[in-house]
Write a structure and sequence with these properties.
alpha+beta, Rossmann fold, 4 domains, 20 strands, 30% helix, binds adenosine-5'-diphosphate, binds magnesium ion
Length: 412
């Protein structure tokens, strides 16, 4: 396979490790800097130039986009997606994971632990936002900070207000977050590849520091993640649409709380702590995944005239509750149940004998008119159309299946 690693520094530990691992597995690999690419955006013929010359064909891209290269780095990844090249992480997911507000918003709709967070748009919203997250001490974060820079702990409401106001004046947007004191300067980094946590470590901040970033001198130790933390880490990566991710988790009194999900997680700290060959695991995963090209589900499934993918909630008086899928008239009405979401666990491609329970959410594909008739009354009154689900949800459901589960097109 011809693999291109998109990295602006070929001497970095992670880049070197990935290049060597790919070579050791018999691939041709080249480290290419995103800033040397030019994008050719022509109808039916998206292309790239590298250092001004047509770039040689590659089969797969491993994006290692640094924080200061987010805009153009993701544009280059997106261009490869348009060219039908498999990208280990999709460009939209990289963009979303870079923005702490966007990430927390997306995670918040799922039953997954996150620290209570708020966003204050203007000065007058600072006080109420602080109150909503339970007051001081509070953590204040710049939306696009990394390595702990831009993460502050305000011990009192007065200090919090002053910091937020100052940042607002300087035109910085900040996320206000409940301080999880019991995590005591510690967090967990889970390295997710596909549907597995391949390695995990606990990071402990140095004396007098609440941020446990390795770049700030935190200590690392290998740990074995329990089932709950493993499930949460994989799920968080899937919700974000990332196939390879470094998921940061706080150990709170109420269980795992996701802090952030990194789309180009560093290998040095975690390989050093765990002695696991993560680079090799990434290349081996890439070899498996290349057989599943990206599919734009929205375009393929929902843009067909009159067809839609919807989430059908099974309310107590639903005529479907208690029946198996085969016993319902869904099949006759040419409605396909793609999956059932039950207690936040997804049952992919359920069989016709699967019993539908009250509280289930059925992900269905079919004619819009037929689906509309099935939607519960309240939904019908509120909206004339059935609720079309977001691509994130489709992504999540498909990611949790063992089938082709990639969506390439950028999300709005
Ligand atoms: N709400 C919080 N409660 C307790 N500690 C936190 C909280 N948010 C961040 N931290 C600490 O600060 C570190 C950096 O925060 P994070 O959101 O991961 O930003 P960065 O992207 O800069 O790493 C975390 O690893 C954690 O140790
Ligand atoms: Mg972090």
């Amino acid at each position: 396979m011809r693999i291109s690693i998109l990295s602006n520094n070929s001497t970095l530990y992670s880049t070197t490790r990935l290049r060597n691992a790919a070579r050791a597995r018999g691939h041709t690999v080249r480290v290419m800097s995103t800033s040397n690419f030019s994008l050719d955006i022509k109808s039916g013929k998206p292309g790239v130039l590298y250092k001004g010359k047509p770039a040689s064909k590659v089969d797969a891209i491993i994006p290692r986009i640094s924080a200061n290269q987010s805009f153009y780095g993701t544009a280059v990844v997106r261009q490869f997606e348009q060219m039908g090249v498999y990208c280990l992480n999709p460009s939209f997911a990289i963009s979303v994971s870079r923005d702490k507000l966007r990430s927390m918003q997306i995670l918040s709709r799922h039953k997954i632990g996150i620290p209570d967070s708020a966003f204050a748009f203007g000065k007058s919203d600072i006080e109420p936002a602080l109150e909503r997250i339970g007051g001081a001490p509070a953590v204040i974060k710049l939306l696009e900070g990394t390595h702990g820079a831009g993460v502050m702990l305000a011990e009192s409401a007065g200090v919090a207000r002053a910091i937020i106001e100052a940042l607002q004046v300087a035109q910085h947007n900040v996320l206000i977050q409940k301080f999880i004191a019991e995590s005591k300067g510690r967090d967990i980094r889970a390295f997710v590849i596909g549907d597995r946590v391949v390695a995990a470590m606990r990071r402990t901040a140095k004396e007098g520091e609440f941020r446990s970033n390795v770049h700030l001198g935190a200590n690392t130790e290998a740990i074995e993640l329990d089932e709950e933390y493993t499930r949460v880490a994989v799920r968080a990566a899937h919700i974000m649409g990332l196939r390879v991710a470094g998921v940061d988790i706080l150990e709170s009194d109420s269980g795992p709380q996701i802090l952030e999900i990194n789309s180009s997680p560093g290998l040095e700290g975690i390989e050093g702590a765990t002695h696991i060959d993560i680079a090799d695991a990434m290349i081996s995963y890439l070899e498996d995944q290349i057989k599943f090209p990206d599919v734009d589900i929205r375009e393929r499934l929902t843009l067909n005239k009159g067809y839609s993918v919807v989430e059908l909630p099974i309310i107590p008086k639903s005529s479907l509750a208690g029946k198996s899928i085969g016993e319902t008239t869904l099949g006759e009405q040419e409605i396909q149940v793609l999956s059932i979401i039950r207690d936040s666990v997804t049952i992919p491609t359920p069989s016709s004998s699967e019993i539908i329970h009250t509280g289930d959410i059925l992900l269905c594909f079919g004619k819009q008119l037929t689906l509309k008739a099935l939607m519960p009354e309240r939904e019908k009154r509120r909206k004339s159309k059935p609720k079309t689900i977001s691509q994130e949800q489709i992504q999540e459901v498909l990611d949790s299946t063992e089938h082709v589960h990639d969506i390439s097109a950028d999300r709005p």
